[in-house]
Amino acid sequence: MADEEQEQNDDNTDAPASGGKKKLLLLLLVGLVLIGVSVGGTVAVLSMLQPEAVPEEGEQLEQEPVEAPPKPAIYYALKPEYILNIEARGRRRYLRLDLTVMTREDDVIAALELHRATVDHIVTLVAGGQIFEEVQTAEGKEFLRLQLLKELQTAFEKEIGKPGIEQVLFTNFVMQ
């Protein structure tokens, strides 16, 4: 009888051990399945968000042209500075401008030097025609800068066939 109880106890101790191993194996299997489902779902969602164009037989994919990075900026200071008379309620005031132009092409710099008289004429007419009170404000200065840019681009379009100048910058702006 003692032997029978001992055998039953041995069977009972083996049962929980093998049951624990089964539970552990089952949990591990469930964990792997969940990880697989998670990875599969992520891949499926990403593939739906970014559909790949697959060319059909005899068809080629259209590739977008890759833009070349812009050339480095070239700054050219217009020296000497411009000293102009402007009107202020019937009185004569002075405007001193130091200008720098920005371009990205060497041939525009050569054209600036060649057509310097035209550039000086445009700056004198546009800046000299300003009203003192209007140019005192930030908006007035920006408007003057944009007017100079537009007029210089128009002149260069006529002379060299392209606008050439990207920016006109004030490096010194003094009014008296």
Could you give the count of β-strands? 3
SSE-based structural type: alpha+beta
Q: Count of helical segments?
A: 5
For the biggest sheet, the summary is: 3 strands, antiparallel
The largest sheet has its strands arranged as 1-2-3
> How are helices and strands ordered from N to C?
HEEHHHHE
Task: Identify the CATH homologous superfamily of the largest domain.
Answer: Band 7 domain
**What's the CATH architecture name of the largest domain?**
2-Layer Sandwich
Low-confidence stretches: none
**Rounded mean pLDDT score:** 84
Short account of what is shown:
This protein is α+β, with helices and mostly antiparallel strands. The chain is 55% helix and 21% strand. The protein has helices at 2-49, 106-114, 116-128, 132-135, 138-160; strands at residues 74-88, 91-103, 167-175.
